[in-house]
Specification:
The structure is a single chain. Helices cover about 65% and strands about 15% of the residues. The protein has about 200 residues and is of the alpha+beta class. Strands 1, 2, 3 and 4 form a four-stranded antiparallel β-sheet that branches. α6 packs across α8. The termini are far apart.
Length: about 200
């Protein structure tokens, strides 16, 4: 009789354990999937952060001669680089950064700023933008420094007249560059803006 009771107890314990096992397996699976998902999103976020272009990246590209090719900032300047390499070769001492910068022109980063956009469909929206202006080699940095408030006011006024849907299109961004270049060049005495690089461009 005692042996029969012991067998019944063991059977009951075994049945209870088998009832818990599927729940435990499900919990482990859910936990594993959650960890994998978090890891995936962190990886994607890390890739996105690494792909953001900074002002320093643009300056490095422009100094190395790749910036002009990408943005079409002047074929003559690109030819100048080719002549320099042909004359000096890889074995010749490289020109200093200051000399290269003088040949290519002045890269002038503007501090990020926020501006209201024109009323489009829906609620009022605003833009947060960061720009790097590329001036010709004749441009004097002192004049650009003195004109900085005027440059910022010009850009903000233009952005105030733009609707969000205009700037969300690639053509709209390129047209804005041309408008800004023309407006700034109208009041510069020495030199001119050759190109404009978007470092940050966010519409909220």
């Amino acid at each position: 009789m005692a042996e029969e009771n012991q067998e019944n107890n063991e059977s009951a314990a075994s049945a209870a354990n088998s009832g818990k096992n599927p729940l435990l397996v499900i919990l482990v699976l859910v936990n594993t999937i959650a960890v994998a998902a978090i890891g995936f999103f962190q990886f994607q976020n890390h890739k996105k952060l690494n792909s953001v272009t900074t002002a320093a990246d643009i300056m490095r590209q422009d100094l190395s001669g790749t910036g002009g090719g990408e943005h079409g900032g002047g074929g003559a300047e690109g030819g100048g680089h080719g002549e320099k390499k042909g004359e000096g070769g890889h074995g010749a001492p490289a020109a200093s950064k200051a000399e290269e910068l003088k040949v290519d022109g002045l890269l002038y980063p503007l501090e990020p700023f926020t501006a209201n956009l024109a009323q489009g469909e829906g609620p009022r929206r605003f833009i947060r933008i960061s720009l790097v202006l590329k001036f010709s080699k004749e441009t004097k940095k002192e004049e650009v420094d003195a004109r900085k408030p005027q440059i910022s006011d010009t850009i903000i006024s233009m952005l105030n007249s733009k609707k969000p849907e205009e700037l969300l299109k690639k053509e709209g961004k390129e047209y804005l560059k041309e408008e800004v270049k023309t407006s700034i060049n109208n009041f510069l005495v020495d030199g001119q803006v050759l190109d404009i690089f978007y470092v940050g461009f966010q519409i909220n």
